[in-house]
Design brief:
Molybdenum Cofactor Biosythetic Enzyme, Chain A; Molybdopterin biosynthesis moea protein, domain 2; Molybdopterin biosynthesis moeA protein, domain 3; 4 domains; 28 strands; binds adenosine monophosphate; binds magnesium ion
């Protein structure tokens, strides 16, 4: 029954670099198919069509200010000391079309965004007229005094200034941020085609696990991995599907894996370390193929990766994270996040890094790439990084204290205080979530 033939224990002796592991993993993922949805629901997704404008934006020449539309020649000589008096022949608000034309010696009162009347080539703002004094004095509003000269084009926003009709405004592949959602709305789009979000099945394994909310029991611990991984999935744009806990036996695992076959990816935790993985290995191999790797990194050296095969032949990639909560989350950041980003159609899958000055040393006794939990703060126009204390991979609270992972390269046995360390930012300083 098992198709599990190509995986041997000696794989554990040869360590994979983080890059090689990532490359192999990403090879299993492609951009997902497309869905149509309301533009607001598409925030954070990738555009799957070119957005071309059917209109000029703004559609017509219009006023940048509340004021008076005039001919610049009429007010050429105007100044505070010698205002020019014009006859007010009409009024136009935003959303209306002007009824009156402007000629020499006349003006149309105009509001911001209203189309410029024929004949006018400039707008004089209210504050450069005597409108307030006139109104206060109960004066004659059929005329207006203009206190400044206005060159041709003054305070006029030309038609098509933002977007010309027929222009490709947002390319297929653009990430929809608030600005892009607004641009789509400005083009008149109510719905848009985007790459759909990946559905990520998330499964914990272990006889020792309880779900949060259950009564605590001696010797048991609460399942945190499902929740941290699901939260990470949400944050990076996936849709988590929590499959709960599989016990360390065949039937329990098998029952859970059925549900994973409907998803785009399965993320499990635990059961991947040496001597522990036989059950997991056999069950997963029954459903497809699985490989166990040692990745040259700390934490999260043991990692499993494979693919489940659904009855219809579709293959569902499976990322097997280590059980220790910090390892699970660090490995999810390095491998799960890029997979989600690739499925979402995002080209750049890397997490931003900054250069930070180390407050204290990072030790690297066995030649792995160390991801040290760090607190990064601004300092002297740059950044500094201090570690969160004990770096045990079981200490999940240390991950909660950190906003970055300071990276000591595999070939550097010790980074001293004062050295510059590349630091992968989990969050930006001063930014929440
Ligand atoms: P294992 O890989 O099964 O040996 O697990 C390694 C460590 O991670 C053990 O201490 C487990 O109790 C712990 N662990 C495994 N799964 C979880 C989980 N879902 N939540 C919290 N800790 C876990
Ligand atoms: Mg276990």
């Amino acid at each position: 029954m098992t198709q599990y033939t190509h995986v041997h224990r000696h794989h554990n002796e040869s360590m994979l670099s983080v890059e090689d592991a990532l490359e192999r993993i990403l090879g299993f993922f492609n951009t997902l198919d497309v869905e149509r949805k309301p533009i607001l629901d598409a925030l954070g997704q990738v555009l799957a069509e070119d957005a071309v404008s059917l209109y000029d934006i703004p559609p017509l020449d219009n006023s940048a200010m509340d004021g008076y539309a005039v001919q610049s020649a009429s007010v050429a000589g105007a100044s505070e000391g010698s205002p020019v008096s014009l006859e007010v022949v009409g009024y136009v608000a935003a959303g209306q079309l002007p009824r009156e034309e402007v000629g020499p010696g006349t003006a149309v009162r105009i509001m911001t965004g209203a189309p410029i009347p024929n004949g006018a080539d400039a707008v004089v703002p209210f504050e450069d007229t005597d409108e307030v004094e006139r109104r206060g004095a109960g004066g004659d509003m059929s005329r207006i005094g203009v206190n400044i000269a206005a060159p041709p084009g003054a305070e006029i926003r030309p038609a098509g200034q933002d977007v010309r009709r027929g222009t490709l405004v947002l390319k297929r592949g653009s990430l929809l941020r608030p600005a892009e959602v607004g641009v789509l709305a400005s083009l008149g789009y109510a719905e848009v085609s985007v790459v759909r979000r990946p559905v990520v099945a998330i499964l914990a394994t272990g006889d020792e696990l309880l779900e949060p909310g259950e009564a605590s029991e001696a010797g048991k611990i609460f399942n945190s991995n499902n929740y941290s991984v699901a939260a990470g999935t949400l944050r990076y744009g996936g849709v988590p599907r929590l499959l709960g806990i599989a016990r360390d036996n065949l039937d329990s695992m098998n029952a859970k894996l059925e549900q994973a076959l409907e998803c785009d990816m399965l993320v499990t935790s635990a059961g991947v370390s040496k001597g522990d993985y036989d059950m997991v290995k056999d069950v997963l191999a029954q459903h497809g193929s699985i490989d166990f790797w040692s990745v040259r990194m700390r934490p999260a050296k043991p990692l499993a990766f494979g693919a489940l095969t659904a009855r219809d032949g579709r293959r569902v990639p499976h990322l097997g994270l280590p059980g220790n909560p910090v390892s699970a989350l660090v490995a999810f950041e390095q491998f799960g996040r890029p997979a989600i980003r690739k499925m979402l159609g995002l080209g750049d899958v890397g997490k931003p890094t900054v250069e930070a000055v180390l407050d204290e040393p990072i030790e690297n006794p066995d030649g792995r790439r160390v991801y040290a939990r760090a607190v990064v703060t601004r300092h002297n126009g740059g950044y500094r990084a201090r570690l969160t204390g004990d770096q045990g991979s079981n200490l999940l609270t240390s991950m909660a204290l950190a906003n970055g992972l300071a990276i000591c390269p595999e070939d550097v046995p010790l980074m001293a205080a004062g050295e510059v360390v590349q630091t992968q930012m989990l969050d930006w300083p001063e930014e929440v979530f």
